[in-house]
Amino acid sequence: MSSIKSGTIQNFEQFSQFSSLKEFNHHFEMWMVEHKPVFSKGELIGLKRLVRYAAKITGVCNAKIGTILKAIHQEYHDNGISRSTFKRMILKAKKLGILTVFETERKNGSQSSNLYQFNRFPSNEPPKAETMDSPLETSNLLKTEKNQKIKERIDEPVKLDHTYVSNRVPQPFVQLVKCFFNDTKTIEEYWKMAKITAYRNSLENDRELILEVAIQSFKQLIRKLKLDQNIQNPFAYFYGITENKFCCFFHQKMQEEFGLNDKEIEFRVV
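Now predict its structure.
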């Protein structure tokens, strides 16, 4: 764990990896789509509170653990989480790559509160192949040329079809999307968009509903693409469709379970 000098939160602006709060929230949602099941209920409460403290300087927080736990206890009417639960959450988040933690120290050298830096969700671009140069002591020209050809072959981009899609993507969705985009990366990206919007509307556990909405939304996207050639970003358009559909389902769920009207639901969400 790295150590830096303590100070006000404004002194740590250079640690922010995000250009806006919207971008930060989007990356955090993608982390949650991928890793939410790893955290317990109490750990998720601590992580989401840490996110709220990382809003002033986007994605950066240096609040004391005691301050964060006190805020959680107040919000949950003295039914908050323990310090050990919070620390366990931090360890998991660090291991997954969600957080980087820096120790800070005062001018006299004593330890101060940690600095928490939220990381960007990794791009799904394929990693570059490692350089396959020969050892320095090897000067054989033929071997060097052979290694270069191998490296070039590895670096050459390969387009994978639908048969390489992750098992986490339901087959009915794969079979639909492959008819139009027979590409692993594209299929997985559309499914990820559906999972993110389901999470935003507290419906991430209803797998059947997510599949239904994803299929309906993709069909709607294809219809739009066929009738309107002016769509610049199909992913963004698909995201918007799923967001609207899940929002409607969320409102319906609130009305059925709690008898709330639309204004009351909006108030609760805010």
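The first helix runs from residue 21 to 35.
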